[in-house]
Amino acid sequence: MRVAVCQLNSRDDRKANLAAAEAAVERAADAGADLVLLPEYVDYLGPGASMPAPEPADGEVGQFFAAAAQRRSVWLIAGSFHEAGPDPQRTWNTTLVFDRSGTLAGSYRKIHLYDVEIPGRVSYRESATVAPGDQPVVVDVEGLQVGLSICYDLRFPELYRQLATDGGAQLLVVPAAFMMHTGRDHWEVLLRARAIENQCFVAAAGQTGDHEPGRTCYGRSMVVDPWGTVLAQVPDGPGVAVADIDLARLERIRAELPSLANRRL
Ligand SMILES: NC(=O)CCC(=O)C(=O)O
Questions:
Q1: One of 40, 126, 200, 217 is an active-site residue; which one?
Q2: What pTM value is reported for the model?
Q3: Which residues, judged by CB distance below 6 Å to any ligand atom, belong to the binding site of ligand 1?
Q4: How far apart (Å, rounded) are the C-alpha atoms in residues 249 and 224?
Q5: Closest residue by Cα to residue 86 from 52, 56, 64
Q6: Cβ distance 39 to 207 under 8 Å?
Q7: How far is Cα 167 from Cα 102, in angstroms, rounded to an integer?
Q8: Residue-wise pLDDT tens digits, 8-58
Q9: Is the terminal CB of the chain with fewer CB neighbours within 10 Å at N or C?
Q10: Cα angle, residue 88 at apex, residues 106 and 20 outer, rounded to 5°
């Protein structure tokens, strides 16, 4: 199974954002990808005041990505978008997974919301407009068990441990819009740690560059193997990187260094 991570610079123009995402899916499919991962808030990353109305999973955004998956016959993890929920004040931050026929195969609502205040650097209160999800999700992608998460979730290792143990995940995916200020010191360390401690592949697709005022994303989308080795990485700016998921390597690492099996708590 070949996985592609697509790095984008989504802004406040949904039409342009979707066109860029579609072009990235095309590029990934041309590179032989079976599974394509897009970043968090792929359809809109701009000021809250001009955000398009939130939609259900089968709204315009969902249908757009279903068609993209079907057109290129790829599995598509469509980053995340603002899903309409029962609370008119708050959406969910939701990732949708489409199979090769464009059928919705799973979805996940971000559990850990980004409420952070770093004076002069980052001021963000995601929970003001987004409601948290409460369900870890693993999707079967043609026999590969894929654990879903979104961005800030990356800082909560207990989620990934649950995905890998109870859920049997072999690949952990992280659509993200990780901030520049935190990303340059934490992003790669956290991704490689989640891969090593859970003996899983990790694929992370990030937003990159400037978005709304005061929001610059780090990018550096990457695929990491269960040993913690970075297999592929997108440099600064939009782009696509691909890597092959070798499950024999995962099994060998788990057999030779059985830290998952040796857990005592
Ligand atoms: N969109 C997010 O969840 C941002 C997370 C982030 O930047 C971090 O440092 O954590």
A1: 40
A2: 0.98
A3: 40, 114, 151-152, 155, 177-179, 182
A4: 12
A5: 56
A6: yes
A7: 24
A8: 999 999 999 999 999 999 999 999 999 999 999 999 999 888 899 999 999
A9: C
A10: 50
CA distance 172 to 75: 15
Check if the beta carbon of residue 83 is closer than 8 Å to that of residue 125. no
Rounded to the nearest whole angstrom, what is the distance from the C-alpha of residue 130 to the centroid of ligand 1? 14
Distance 247 CA to ligand 1 centre (A): 29
Q: Provide the percentage of residues in the chain whose pLDDT is more than 90.
A: 94
pLDDT at 121: 85
Distances (CA, A) of 261 to 135, 136, 264: 24, 21, 9
In angstroms, the Cα distances linking 148 to 6, 23, 89, 158, 197 are: 16, 23, 25, 13, 17
Which ipTM was obtained for this model? 0.99
How many Cβ atoms are within 10 Å of 143's Cβ, its own excluded?
Answer: 8
Compute the distance between CA of residue 15 and CA of residue 148 in angstroms, rounded to an integer.
26
CATH class of the domain at 2-256:
alpha beta
Q: For 223, what's the count of Cα atoms within 13 Å in the CB-facing half-sphere?
A: 23
